[in-house]
Specification:
2 domains; 6-stranded parallel sheet; Rossmann fold; 7-stranded parallel sheet; 17 helices; alpha/beta; single chain
Length: about 450
Amino acid sequence: MTSAPKLSALYLSSRPPFPPAGGRERLIAQNIRFLAAEYELHVIVFCRKGERPDLGELMRMGCRSVRLARLPGVAEIALNLLTRRRYSLQESLFFSRRSRELVHELAVSGISFVIADMLRTGQYCEDLPVPKLIDLDDLLSERYRQFLANGYRQAVFGTFSQRVPKPLVMLEPLLRRQMLEWERRVLAGREANAPHRFDVTLLTSDEEVARLRLASHATQIYANPQATPVPAAAWQCDAGASAGRVGCFFLGNMRTSQNLSSLQLIADDVMPLVCGEGIDVHVHVVGDFDDRAVAIARSTGDRITLHGFVSDYVPIARSCNVALLPVVEGTGVNTKVLDAMALGIPVITTRMGIKGIGVEHDREVLIADTALEMHRMIVRLAEDSTLGVRLSAAARAYILDHHDPMRLHEQFREHVAKAIESGRARLADRARVLSDVLLAPHAAEAPVSVVDQRAT
């Protein structure tokens, strides 16, 4: 007995997922890994001119094919800004007519359904007559609202700055407030409309799922959180803390304004308070960085070590006493907090750091929203070794219950199945309506217009 042939899927990746420098890259890799296990998967990776990503890992994951799509140049971006006013700035920066031809060429070659990574790639497939799923990651309109509320110190493009033409990067600081206001307004509309253009919409947190359901009046919106494996060996309390030494672990891409703001808070406000208690504190930072992070580290003397991107940061984390992970702004779920909890290293974070995570203060983590509170929590952990052990066990248990890879794989499979089923039903209904229109008496005298936002 032969098994039924696999359905074919097309995944549009907004960036190369390897190396997994940040949470988004990891979630893209997770989605591709889940899909490749179930479907004949074709992947299109968007990258800038001259970028040569390593695609070998994608093929080893089981992808049937991997192709590159180039981002637009300066001239085409200018054309996009003039002719595509209903789209957000980031979508205009991402839209290439040549890449659209590539997507459509592959999509009409027998693809069963399409998965788009974020709005940036969603614009390439929203008019395709196939079942479609979009993974928004988080609500960028809310992130930009926070940037505006906090004095718009953060760059509009974020880590995407490396993929934006230099003239636009140079102009961005001069027009930052106007650009943020424009992006927030346009993105809010595009996000609210996404569930009406796609058969299923995904976000990383249940909190943002509820918010988008309310804004869009749609129900096919679900959470797709980061799977987080729990190492067999748990973190062990370091006796060095009792001798007046505390090692703090920080994890994150230090090219993002959010992580830089967190490190600045640690260096300027938290470390002086801890040192004032006579505690020798040192912060170990894991994540890609640039000159801005170097400047912050130098301001503390030798008390901050920048390790850069490290594929296996477990030994560094286990040499520390606490994961100090303040989050001052952001959306979605903070994967750095999940990773630290999985290791079992005691976590100190802010209320924003646990958004989308169902943990409580003094049960799985310690919550501290000010530098003074963080200082007190560090001292408390240094003086009470049993507290760290208790937090460690509870945090690992939470990750096992809520972020187990096998459980989330099954959940993702269900989301994809819903998208395929809904998309097929939608397309069948559309075909039936069109057939009725064509066969109806006097159809030529009274034409009827049929509009479907997901397949025009």
